[in-house]
Amino acid sequence: MLLQETREEIVVYGKKLLESNLTRGTGGNISVFDKETNLMAITPSGIDYFKIQPEQIVLIDVNTGDIVDGNSVPSSECEMHRILYKYRTDINAVIHTHAPFATAVSCLNQSLPAVHYLVAFAGIDVRCAPYASYGTVELAKNAFEAMKDRKACLLANHGMLAAGVNLAEAFTVTEIIEFCCEIYYRAKSMGEPVILPEAEMVYMMDRFKHYGQPVKNGNRSKKI
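Above: the chain sequence. Below: its structure as tokens.
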């Protein structure tokens, strides 16, 4: 089966979305881009994540949008994924969810500010793309603009889009931005949260590039 490992990985992460309460029912979608074949593997439309089989993951040519393989109808949001792979060289996996707190913030039609330093996993902040009907080219274009220099965006009155160099990173970004949206929601219920300055977020973004690895240069921390 073409791109078997990739398809199997998508099936695993689909289940993780539900288990982590990052989406409900058959909502949301997952894709992975294979640069060697120029194919995008994406979840099918309207099938329970716990019932999806690898052969039901649809393979689409990123340049043409043509279906190459897969015995199901692809996700209605395939254009929102394809536009990122076509014009972004740093993205190889995309996850779209209806995570509750991210969706709640998206219904305000405003960006998620730097309420917590972990927002830097996605960028200086997380923009909110203007509303457009689901599954449309207009929504794909709106999301693409909101994702510039970012690894996540909110989709107005809809949900969240997250990306990464691989599926593990895209999932991590999804989890972290949902957490930050929850923090923002809770902080706003008590008052007006203090937003971190842009310089600090740029510093955090640089640190996260080496997260978990020794930093030889540029470590701003000092010994006490």
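The two ends are 57 Å apart (CA to CA).
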